[in-house]
Every structure is written in C-alpha cells, then in structure tokens.
Design a protein that fits this description.
The protein has 171 residues and is an alpha+beta fold. Helix content is 47%, strand content 14%. It has helices spanning 11-21, 26-77, 91-97, 140-149; strands spanning 109-114, 129-136, 154-155, 161-168. A hairpin with a 5-residue loop joins strand 3 (154-155) and strand 4. The mean pLDDT is 86.
C-alpha cells in the first residue's frame, strides 16, 4: 500500500506518523547535555570540597589519638619517643597505638616531631613546640582543609609540613 491509498485517519497512517515523530531532535539533546554540564560544574567542586573536609576530619581524629597515646607514654615512662621520619611510627608508641593508625597515605603522611636535643633543650624554640604531630602533604587544598578544621595553633615549619603541637615549649 502507498500513502495516498491509506486514509489519514486510519490506524496504519497514525502508526507511520508516530514512527517518524519518535526520538529527540538534535536541539533537544544539546539542551539536555548543557543542563547536565551545568549541574556537573556545580556539583564536582562541592564533591571535592567534601572529600577534603572528610580527609581533614580523619587527620584530626588521628592527631587526637596520637596526642592521647603520646601523653600516656610520657606518663608511663617520663619521656617522649624520639623523632622519626615522615610515614614512620615511633616504635615506642606501637604498643599504645596497637595498629590503629596508618602513617602513610597516598596523598599525605604523618611525621612524629620531637624538637629537643639530648640535653632536653629545644632545637626549634621559635615554634613554641617541643613535641608535635605533622602532616606532610604536597596537596595545598588538603593542607588548607586541615587549617580550617583545626581550632588550635598550627605551625607551618617547612614547606609541605603542617605541625600540631602536643607539648608546648615554655621558656
């Protein structure tokens, strides 16, 4: 059958008309893509911000754990553990921490700081701290999130090190 032989009100003509009208035009698809792009531009920065805030909260939780365990170690032994390098747990704190803390993460590391010499004199008196817990990161957004979340004094002693005091230096 051809189109001319079929009346316009017949079911076959209506079915043919619907099949030609099915789908979306190019303009409609472009509008949907633009709306999705706008929503993504709004949501992705907020998602990254939430991710950094979550990491900063985890760092603060770990700092509080280390501060508590270091104080317990000091109460038990009358000295703080010696300094270790970034990503290395002080062996003296291992029995206190009991594996509850990971010192090396993909985008940051923890660093135990003890800024006193063998005589007990501070090696970094300008910082006002003799015992600290540092976060070593090359991600400025993470360091900024930590600064915003922590309510106490934060010391940026060397590039990429953010230090939280555990024991202040009093002269």
């Amino acid at each position: 059958m051809n189109d001319q032989a079929t009346p316009t009100g017949s079911p076959e003509a209506a079915a043919r008309r619907r099949s030609r009208e099915a789908g979306f035009s190019l303009l409609e698809l472009l509008i949907v893509c633009a709306v999705i792009g706008i929503i993504a531009n709004i949501m992705i920065p907020a998602l990254y911000s939430a991710l950094y805030r979550a990491k900063a909260a985890r760092i603060m939780e770990d700092y509080n754990l280390v501060r508590t365990m270091a104080s317990q170690h000091y109460a038990d032994h009358s000295f703080y553990p010696p300094e270790t390098g970034p990503g290395v747990e002080p062996p003296e704190l291992a029995s206190y921490l009991q594996g509850r803390l990971i010192w090396t993460h993909p985008d940051y590391q923890y660093d135990w700081e003890l800024w006193v010499d063998n005589s007990g004199n501070p090696t970094q008196p300008s910082t006002g701290v003799i015992v600290g817990f540092s976060i070593v990161t090359y991600d400025p957004a993470l360091a900024d999130a930590v600064h915003k979340l922590f309510k106490g004094p934060v010391i940026d002693t060397i590039p990429n090190h953010t230090t939280f005091g555990i024991e202040p230096y009093v002269s």
